[in-house]
Design a protein that fits this description.
349 residues; mainly beta; seven-stranded mixed beta sheet; 18 strands
């Protein structure tokens, strides 16, 4: 049996192992809710370890909406979801009508998500009273507070098989992020969380940001090209920048990437990243061979090669087999052959 066939069997085992831990897929979700949370505290419900009265919790819901969709191959429509509504609160308690909107859309290599709420007025109330149960009077405290939230989320996952070398190599990914966080002065918090991660949730690039309408101010933290930076300011936070992700991969093993974009608003505000978080470039070492498991064209991820620009975009898994496996990989390769031999013997009997 040729070394190439042995390597292919081992590579398939590695790829199946990688797929068992993850997958290639697209996912999008959107949701919103408007409710009045109610907390009742009384010794009638018992005492905690410190002798304080225990609380019970409830909620009066005025509106809720949720939607989600996913895809696992390039032949399926990309997930595109919306959720929200216009919901009237209890006007007798000073609650206003709220309009919530959330959106999520995911393509191979691109994330789109947004969330917004308008018309919300925070209403907080407190009551002091008592329960009478079986002739016994129990003191009680009741507090309530309204809340309105909207969430839009977009996730893509991809597996890349990388061959053409031994040991480890470096890839550099470029992503462009475009959007904004804003809201009217008052009560509201708009947030963005985006990460690009590998196996075991190793984060190689990220953006985390928030806009606080009560102070008309924002903060932003960015992990790009291995450097974490934090900035702050006032007014609308606008994004139009490139993020760099660098990662050391292992030849002959499947590389997994997950891009997760989440937008959220509590109170009034807008987190608008419906334009895009786009994977614009993936540079691999010279003479690398790469296979994209989902079947997505290499141009979608902007795959290119360093040095003289030579490399191979593979159309099948066999093409991306590492020519000379690392010594540490032989045990897995031989184990795969052992399983094949056992199956063959079983069929002969």
């Amino acid at each position: 049996m040729s070394l190439r066939i042995v390597a292919l069997l081992g590579l398939s085992s590695l790829a199946l192992s990688a797929q068992a831990q993850s997958q290639f897929r697209l996912y999008a979700e959107a949701g919103g809710t408007y409710f009045n949370g109610i907390t009742t505290t009384s010794p009638l419900f018992g005492l905690d370890a410190w002798g304080n009265p225990v609380s019970t919790y409830g909620a009066q819901t005025f509106g809720v909406a949720a939607n989600a969709a996913s895809a696992f191959d390039t032949g399926s429509p990309i997930p595109n979801v919306n959720a929200g509504g216009t919901w009237a609160g209890d006007a007798a308690q000073g609650m206003t009508t709220v309009t919530a909107n959330a959106f999520g859309k995911t393509g191979w290599g691109s994330n789109h998500a947004s969330a917004s709420i308008s018309g919300y007025t925070e209403v907080t109330r407190n009551y002091a009273g008592e329960f009478v149960v079986g002739g016994t009077t129990w003191p009680m405290q009741v507090s309530s507070q309204t809340a309105a939230t909207a969430v839009g989320r977009s996730v893509w996952e991809e597996l890349y098989q990388i061959g053409g070398g031994t040991g480890t190599g470096q890839f550099t990914g470029t992503l462009h992020i475009d959007g904004s966080l804003s809201g009217p002065l008052g009560n509201g918090l708009a947030t963005l969380d985006w990460t690009l991660s590998t196996f075991s949730d190793v984060v190689i690039a990220s953006v985390s940001a928030s806009f606080d309408a009560s102070t008309n101010s924002w903060t932003k933290s960015v992990l790009s090209n291995g450097i974490q930076t934090t900035t702050s300011g006032t007014g609308t936070l606008s994004f139009d920048e490139n993020i760099i992700a660098s990662y050391t991969f292992t030849y002959g093993a499947a590389l997994y990437l997950k891009s997760d974009l989440s937008t959220k608003v509590s109170g009034n505000g807008t987190a608008d990243f419906s334009n895009t978080v786009q994977f614009t470039g993936m540079r691999l070492p010279e003479d690398t061979a790469v296979y994209v498991f989902s079947g997505t064209p290499a141009t979608t991820y902007g795959i290119s090669f360093a040095g003289n620009g030579s490399g191979t975009i593979c159309q099948d898994l066999a093409c991306a087999v590492t020519a000379v496996p690392e010594p540490g990989s032989y045990a897995l390769l031989l184990a795969g052959l052992g399983v094949l031999g056992w199956v063959t013997r079983r069929r002969m009997h």
